[in-house]
Structure formats: structure tokens, C-alpha cells
Amino acid sequence: MSSSYDFLFKIVVLGEGAVGKTAVVTRFSHGFFRTDYKTTIGSQFAVKNIDITDNSGSRYTVKLQIWDVAGQSRFQILRPMYYRGSSGGILVYDVTRRRTFIVLEEWLRELEKAIGKQIPLVLVANKTDLPDRVIEPSEGRKFADEHGMPYLESSAKTGEGIVDIFEELAKTLVDKRSQSEV
Ligand code: G3D
Ligand code: MG
Questions:
Q1: DSSP class of 160
Q2: Which atom of ligand 1 lies closest to the CA of 33?
Q3: Ligand 1, atom 5, residue with closest C-alpha
Q4: pLDDT per position as a tens digit, 49-84
């Protein structure tokens, strides 16, 4: 039954406008890629179950409530309220636009300020299908290492790497939660 689950987590998707946040979430939750996304106004969320195996080999169904938050600066005042209650986050940049990589620190600060603590995050280098890539994997990996998060590459267009993003985060959240319950 798709409605039953073992864990429910709210996760937020962060990053500059047009890095592909909505495309990544849509690809994962509905399995398709569209080129006519309307710019996300304020925020919207998708819900999807995912099956994972935790560190001890147990299988769990995790329900993810994925908040796709508007990246444009005019929504900055609204965003903190969407961040609250998040268990984890996905930090996205566009490998063809350096600016989206440079501002990652700002996104981290905004999130931490809003929720007052650090939560598990995954760094996502999106649009790897495009030929005009300017941010090499080594740069992304370095940033991820420095901030203690996994580095993953994706293309919402081809679907490559998309499921891995959510699996990685869901698994981390389940492992973290089981730890804190011991
Ligand atoms: P956002 O939600 O972060 O603002 P969107 O970004 O998901 O709205 O995507 C912004 C644009 O990038 C969209 O193009 C979308 O189709 C495109 N895009 C998103 N992910 C990828 C990807 O992995 N590969 C490629 N090639 N394009 C991607 P349009 O033209 O519709 O504005
Ligand atoms: Mg969007």
C-alpha cells in the first residue's frame, strides 16, 4: 500500500532561481521532465514514498514531503516560514552557471538562521546533460566535503542521478533518527 510508511520527513529544496529545483522534484515525484515550468511562486510541495535499507539492513518506507521553495530574491522574506520543521534539505546549483555555485553559502546561512540548527543536506550539481559546464565535479566535491554533506550529480532532463538524491537523504535521515532513539 503506497499510503503506509515507517517515517515521514519534511525536506526543503534550496538554490538560486532556475537551477532546476522544480524540475528535480517533478522528475522524482512524477517521473517526467517538462520544459514549461512556471516559476515557482512562493512554494509548493510534492509527496512521495521511497523504500530504503538502513545501516543495519532493515527495509523502511519513507514518506518524503518535499518543499520546493522559490529561489528568487523577492521571495526571501517568505522562505524562512517554509524551512521550519524540515528534517533535511537538498542544495542545488546549476553546473553551467558559476553564480549559482558561489551563492551556496548564502543558502546555507539562510536555512540555518531560519531553523536555528544544522540538518542533513545533500549537495546537488544539476544540469550535467548540458555541454557548457563550468563547475567541475572537484569544485562541487570540495564544497560538499567542507560542509560535511554528500555530493551528487543530476540531470532532471535525462533523469540521471535523481532518485539517488532522495535515497541518499532519506537513508541519512532514517539512520540519524534510529541513532537518536537508541
Ligand atoms: P527552479 O525551480 O530552480 O527555479 P526550474 O528551476 O526547475 O524551473 O528549471 C529552470 C530551467 O532549467 C527550466 O528551463 C528547466 O527546464 C531547466 N532545467 C532544469 N533542470 C535541468 C536539467 O537537468 N537539464 C537541462 N538541460 N535543463 C534543466 P526553461 O527553459 O523551461 O525555463
Ligand atoms: Mg521552481
A1: T
A2: 16
A3: 20
A4: 999 999 899 999 999 999 988 877 777 888 888 899
